[in-house]
Amino acid sequence: MNAFLKIILAAPVAALLSTSALADPAPAVVEAFAAALASLPQDEATPAQNGTSALAALLKSAAGDPAARKVFSSKMAALLTTALNHDSKTFLCRQLASIGSEADVPLIAPLLAEAATADMARDALEGIGGARSAEVLRLALPKVSGKTQAGIINSLAVLKDVAAVSALAAIAAGADPAAAAVSVDALGKIAGPAADQALETLHLMVSGKLLDDVQDARLRCAGPPASPEDRARSLKICQTVLEKTKAPALRQLALRTMLQASGPNAPLPAAGDESGFEPLFNGRDLSGWQGADYEVVDGVIIGHGHHGGYLGSTRTDFANFILRFEVKFSPGANNGLNFRTDGPIWNELQILDDTHPLFHDLKPWQAHGSLYGVAPAKRGHLKPTGEWNAEEVIADGTRIKVTLNGTVILDLDLAQFDLDHCADGTAHPGLRRPSGGLGWLGHLNSSEQPGPIFLRNIRLKRLP
Amino acid sequence: MAGGTLAFPALIPSSALGLDGAVAPAERVTVGFIGVGDRGMHVLKNGFLPCPEAQVVAMCDATVWRTKSGVETVDQAYGTKGCRGFADFRDLLAEPGVDAVYIGTPDHWHAPAAILSAKAGKDVYSEKPVTLTIAQGQALCDVMKRYGRIYQSGTQGRSGAAVRQACELVRNGKIGKVLRLDIELPNSRGIEAQNLKAGIPPLQPIQAGFDYEMWLGPAPWVPHRGGCFWDFRWRSDYGGGYISDWGTHLLDFAQWMLGTDGSGPVRVEGKGERMTGFWNVHSKYEVEFTYADGVRVGVRENQGTEGLLKATGSEGAFTYSWNAQQLTAESRDYRRIKTAPGEIQLYASDNHVENFIRCVRSRQPTISPAEVGHRSASMCHLAVIAMDLGQPLDWDPVAERFSNNEVANRMLSRSMRSPWHL
Lengths: 464, 422
What we know:
The complex is a heterodimer.
Chain A: H1 3-10, H2 13-16, H3 27-38, H4 49-62, H5 66-78, H6 86-99, H7 105-108, H8 115-128, H9 130-140, H10 146-158, H11 165-172, H12 177-190, H13 192-203, H14 208-221, H15 228-244, H16 248-261, E1 278-279, E2 289-290, E3 294-297, E4 300-303, E5 309-313, E6 321-329, E7 334-341, E8 348-352, E9 389-396, E10 399-404, E11 407-413, E12 437-442, E13 453-462
Antiparallel strand pairs in A: 1-13, 2-5, 3-4, 4-13, 5-12, 6-9, 6-13, 7-8, 7-12, 9-10, 10-11
Chain B: E1 29-34, H1 38-48, E2 54-60, H2 64-78, E3 84-86, H3 89-93, E4 100-103, H4 107-119, E5 123-126, H5 134-146, E6 151-153, H6 161-171, E7 178-185, H7 189-198, H8 212-216, H9 242-245, H10 247-258, E8 267-274, E9 282-290, E10 296-301, E11 308-313, E12 316-321, E13 326-327, H11 332-335, H12 352-362, H13 370-389, E14 393-396, E15 401-402, H14 406-410
Parallel strand pairs in B: 1-2, 1-4, 2-3, 4-5, 5-6, 7-10
Antiparallel strand pairs in B: 7-11, 8-9, 8-14, 9-10, 11-12, 12-13, 14-15
């Protein structure tokens, strides 16, 4: 049996399971540990393996004992500048990653300066974490280059060190493309307002592949948002990226980030008997529709135009029908369902995030689901903003009926309305049309907030 | 590789594949291989080459000879010279003519290569265990979700009627309330003896044509002593021994049986011993997981070289054998029980590679997406941490952190050698 294992096994168990959590480990244990450390090899041809099993047994005992950990880790850190071989030091740093503390950082820091030892030092520092580890990494940044610098940048990303943002932004704007790319990636992982601000500035300064990386990193900062306020900010970042990039892969990433940032996306339960329904949206592209500022990602149509935008059906023969769809709002989103239209005619059923503070003083016929300008829908049946809603619209002769999340919120007979003198003070003669196309009417809301609208699972059953 | 994008040759016409036009060339998913060793070659010949909806177009290995062998195998199978070899997998990923990749590298490369592949726009089939650490798994799931990639974890047992049937038996209450799942993995006595006999391998010059620097990738730098092919799995820098190697499969089935995909246990404890010498993974192991509803999952060594999963419930028990790929003879009565209409029916797939390729085309989730693979691999990592610390650990499967041990939490991740990052 290994001589050092014998020493360890002889050490009183009580010393290891110290009754006082703050008492130093027993001298016998400390001695055994020192002896095991002394057996670590110095010549490069001998791996550290043989010595490490003894150490591992001692370290196992230290895992539940903070005082022992401190004693052990300081002894290990002290060996980092001795003549031990590379393998031994790699092993010591691996242990320091698990049991080291900020007190050990000053002894680890010098290893960052050398290419041969920087990675093992980073291992220890990433495990230890904290402000001191981040500080020594930051201090080392300008002193190294190439792969060594890249590694330190990556460690700052792992530690999500906000204090490193300005230094990273400088490297990202600098002359070394490889370092710039790594720095941009790090900014995306650090995230938060400072990193996002830096990326926004870089946006204007860089081009080519690095600009794509900056966009990607910005989108990383955009999700997933922790709060409703964050959600609006995330959506705005996505919208900005969409406005500035033509690259299809990046557009898809921005759209997907927008979709994932907007709220949950689990499927809704089936809406009832679906027999006889044909899909109007194939889930993949906008076949059957035309319009700018609407794009498809992951089975969802996103209307993301800053100024609204119209998505109209290519078919114009929808007369009497049941239309079912699912709709999700971003904060303040404003859209509308156009039906029996010839394009310019707006026969609009309101689609609106009407619980948003922007819309605190709506006219009754402006609420979601209302026949806009004509008749109000019942309010209060939308899911919280960011969740999917299931809606059904029946247009059968003069009967217009809207069901939202299982509740009928509008049920009227157009024949009972004077369509030349409607509630909004204007005429809506288009509502007399017996058939026409469908469309989604994106509106700019009054504060020019980006307000994407999300649509999926659009299907229609014709009625006789 | 020299600059400039070389166009891929035209895709193989279906007549050349003898398929009578079953899948038009333009519809086929083009696949590149990253890592084509023993396992990769097996999956190539038995999984991807026979799949009519796929076309293998690119090969990359850290060794020149395995890349060449992969290219020759593909060209011979298709009867053409269309497959291209790459020395650096990043060049393979830059090719627009590759839709998806198979990752057959050692474990330490699985997650980093998958993440780079996803960012390059490729869907991913990764060998198991899909990660080396739990933190890698979280990053993996995040990337796959953000980039909308289709991902298959290489726990191909799920695409098998016997595993599905065994899991449906449990889910449908055929053994009553589940009490325990007991997993046995091959013992490592033979490996240990080999390790002791070999002693410390001497430093070796790196063979010509082996890119050792790339092979190491994110793993810590150590001088070359051989043992990189197959035997990598006995060193913690690259793998986890039988616990990860066979354990991922059986723990994956356990998770499926218990309905805890996307989640995990609430407690893990164990004792084990690592090998001493050059190989250093656990050779002796005994681990017990506890789930929130009280179910226990035990993992220990077998007396022989079997992989077994015994499910014990309040009304019965059966055993599944990984070696035999079916319920054991003693459990034959359970073999006959079919799932009835109205009972829980799990995701049905009969071919793990075909499932992946079809999902690449349909964009529907595979039978073993990233979240599933991550949580199954996590079981292995939890076991190793528990054995290294020798203390019971309380695990929060939602936050994916230990609630009672900060040292254990530090062991959820490892640093990556520069310039690599997740």
